[in-house]
Design brief:
By secondary structure, this protein is an alpha+beta fold. 30% of the residues lie in helices and 37% in strands. It has helices at residues 6-14, 53-60, 92-103, 106-118; strands at 19-24, 30-35, 38-39, 44-49, 63-69, 78-88, 123-136. The longest helix is centred in the last third of the chain and has 13 residues, at 106-118.
Length: 141
């Protein structure tokens, strides 16, 4: 397996993909949930409802991992971000607005976004700051 270059990993993470967020339960066992995310070159951000169970887990232990991979049928490639998460009380609806148009078609955006807008103050941002990046370049696994 050959790791991606920094430029390859950056380009890979900037593409629209579903990620898997791993957090830790109170007993130390991991749990994983699929999430939308945005990569800015230095951190990954996601938005979530302020009462989401993943936030309770992050508040208790902010060590997380975010795994992003090619879909089934594509040449195998992946990036995993291991790091720490912080919760930002503002910016959630703005991030939701940016991401929804990447993940949903126009009809779905039109039906879902108004409900999200009505609860705009209930969205928070989770920012993941990498401690380590692991990756596999296409065709090297």
């Amino acid at each position: 397996m050959t790791a991606m270059t920094d430029a390859q990993a950056d380009a890979f993470l900037r593409e629209t993909r579903i990620a898997k967020l791993a957090t830790l339960n109170a007993d130390g066992s991991p749990t994983v949930v699929p999430v939308w995310f945005e990569w800015d070159g230095t951190s990954a951000t996601l938005f979530t409802y302020y009462k989401a169970p993943k936030l309770a887990r992050i508040r208790r232990d902010n060590r997380v991992a975010l795994s992003v991979e090619e879909p089934l049928g594509a040449m195998e490639a992946w990036v995993t971000i291991e790091g720490t998460a912080t919760i930002e009380e503002s910016g959630g609806i703005e991030l939701a607005r940016r991401l929804i148009v990447r993940y949903y078609d126009a009809d779905r955006v039109a039906s879902v976004l108004p409900g999200w807008e009505r609860m705009a103050n209930e969205w928070v941002v989770v920012r993941i700051t990498p401690v380590r990046l692991h990756s596999s370049a296409p065709g090297t696994s």
